From TrEMBL:
One of its GO terms (cellular component) is cell outer membrane. Keywords: Cell outer membrane, Membrane, Signal. Belongs to the MipA/OmpV family. The lineage of its organism: Bacteria, Pseudomonadati, Pseudomonadota, Alphaproteobacteria, Rhodospirillales. This is MltA-interacting MipA family protein. InterPro entries: MipA. PANTHER family: MLTA-INTERACTING PROTEIN-RELATED (PTHR38776).
Length: 272
């Protein structure tokens, strides 16, 4: 990680539409959409654990859209001694503090951008580049309940800051089935909100949308329910259903066509 600077990550993230599509999968854990890779059973086999898999995700074409797209959802999770990890949610990171109950860590991942060609409603707004995203995160677990907090900063793209508190619950239904649910809220700063929900004078002339200033505040609240099936010691399948609701300036933006943002994810994976 120390050999890869933030600037090099930003250059990589800005390389085109393929990375923007990949970033959409990476950001799922942060935005409250189905994070299927995180439902994988713990590998727990020596110092290293690996999870590989793939599936499909149905979600709005962009945040605020009333139209849907289906995207492939490959995922990978690599973990060394529960200390160093590479995963779809947060990227490459380190658990600095790790006890049975408390986790504190840092990571660098990928933040997706937005392409004005993704939908007619976005024409004239210009593209938002994908970017490197740094995270500082923590969680505290007691019983089946976990309280979490993720603070992230984009280096490139919107240059935005996101703060996401969440509460999640995991309920074992049997030896093979586990039910999980979570609720989270996301606060965004001025840079993020103006990039994704604001309309400048220039954008207004090109797009036909009214000029709009989007300010800092809570942009969304997200609910998710997931079901994990441990098919065997190595194979598992998972399904997630999520509903996000845009709030405040995000909900009132002329870019937003629907305040309600549902999503469904299905995946199969193998751990070794």
């Amino acid at each position: 990680m120390n050999r890869m600077s933030v600037s090099s990550l930003t250059a990589l993230a800005s390389s085109g539409r393929i990375l923007r599509a990949a970033g959409a999968g990476v950001i799922l854990a942060v935005t409250g959409m189905p994070a299927v890779a995180q439902e994988a059973p713990d590998a727990g086999r020596g110092d290293w654990s690996f999870v590989l898999g793939g599936g499909a995700l149905v979600r709005p074409s962009y945040e605020g859209s009333d139209k849907f797209s289906v995207s492939p959802l490959p995922f990978v999770s690599i973990n060394w001694r529960d200390r160093v990890f590479l995963e779809m949610g947060r990227g490459l990171g380190v658990n600095v503090v790790r006890t049975d109950a408390l986790r504190l860590g840092v990571s660098v991942g990928l933040a997706p951008g937005r392409d004005e060609d993704d939908e007619d409603h976005l024409r004239g707004l210009g593209d938002i580049d994908a970017a490197a995203r740094g995270h500082v995160f923590g969680s505290y677990s007691f019983g089946m309940v976990q309280l979490g907090l993720d603070v992230s900063k984009d280096f490139g793209g919107s240059e935005g800051v996101l703060v996401r508190p969440d509460v999640s619950v995991k309920v074992p239904l049997s030896e093979s089935w586990t039910l999980s649910s979570s609720v989270s809220a996301t606060w965004a700063n001025d840079d993020y909100m103006q990039s994704f929900f604001g309309v400048s004078s220039s954008q207004s002339r090109k797009s036909g949308l009214e000029r709009y200033d989007a300010g800092a505040g809570f942009k969304s609240v997200d609910f998710r329910v997931g079901l994990n099936w441990a098919i065997s010691e190595s194979w598992f399948a998972t399904a997630n259903v999520g509903v996000g609701v845009l709030l405040g300036d995000a909900a009132d933006s002329p870019i937003t066509e629907s305040e309600v943002q549902p999503s469904v994810g299905l995946a199969v994976g193998y751990r070794f």
